[in-house]
Amino acid sequence: MTPLLTVNLLRVLFVTFCAAIGAIASSELEGGMWPGVVLGLLLGLVVVLIDRLLKGFSLRAFSSATFGLLLGWIFAKLLSASQILIYLPPTTQWAIGLVVYCTFGYLGMMLAMRSNRDEFSLIIPYVRFARETTQHEPLVIDTNVIIDGRIAELCATGFLSRSLIVPRFVLGELQALADSRDPTKRERGRRGLEILNDLQRSRDVELTIHESSAGEDVDLGVDARLVRTA
Predict the structure, then answer these.
(1) Fewer beta carbons within 10 angstroms: which end of the chain, N or C?
(2) What is the DSSP code (8-state) at residue 124?
(3) CATH 3.40.50.1010 in the chain, residues?
């Protein structure tokens, strides 16, 4: 069954349910059950029409639907507590209350399921929904990127992929710099190794040392070997 067919089936069931509740609510009145059936159908169709008008919201998660249902029931409870139905027969009060709960619950679920995380932050201040998974491809980084040191901050913010690949020959290049007699190169190499160690300990980054066959081809430059590794 396709999602569209499922949604349409739920809409038909909801309208039918409203008509049945309308029949039960009006069965004890002088006009009979048919006015209640008509009113129930109209109410169900209006609710479905509102649902169609709100179709611009996108589906997020089951938790959003649960939150919307609870919020709708809270409004329904406040409306039922107003005692506006106190002079009606008990059966009619029960039927109308059931319609109110179903209507507000339905609208609450639809609104919540189609709301994004920014809209939720307006309802629940200081609460943000963060993605636990990343859609970025792993990044192959070279010596200059490691020595620069800002890659960890970019990965932590989610701007770049958290999965980093360091080819073995890049690690060898850092070690060669750290062992250099030139003070400037030696300082850059040691800084790169320290940053690499920080990346390995970081929870925001998944660092992998890649054993690339391109590193064995010493005739190629570093950039060419990085391209082959990627």
Answers:
(1) N
(2) S
(3) 139-229
CA distances for 152 relative to 40, 57, 133, 134, angstroms: 59, 35, 17, 15
Q: DSSP readout, 147-212? A: HH-THHHHHHTTSS-SEEEEEHHHHHHHHHHHT-SSHHHHHHHHHHHHHHHHHHH-SS-EEEEE--
Query: What is the domain class of 139-229 according to CATH?
Result: alpha beta
Please answer whether residues 106 and 47 qualify as being in contact, where contact means their C-beta atoms are separated by less than 8 angstroms.
yes
User: For residue 6, what pLDDT band results from cuts at 50, 70 and 90?
Assistant: confident
- How far CA 98 is from CA of 30, 103, 165, in Å, comes to 21, 8, 58
- In the block, tokens 């060419």 appear at 224
Are the C-beta atoms of residues 95 and 41 closer than 8 Å to each other?
no
Angle, vertex CA 37, rays to CA 33 and CA 42, nearest 5: 150
User: CA end-to-end span of the chain, whole Å?
Assistant: 42
Higher pLDDT, 212 or 195: 195
Measured distance CA(98)–CA(92) in Å, rounded = 10
Contact 168, 215 (CB under 8 A): yes
**Per-residue pLDDT tens digits for 28-82:** 777 778 888 889 899 989 988 888 876 655 545 567 778 888 888 888 888 877 7
- Residue with token string 């391109």: 214
Structure tokens at 84: 């506006």
> pLDDT at position 132, please?
47
Q: Extract the tokens encoding 142.
A: 């070279």
pLDDT score of 178 more than 80? yes
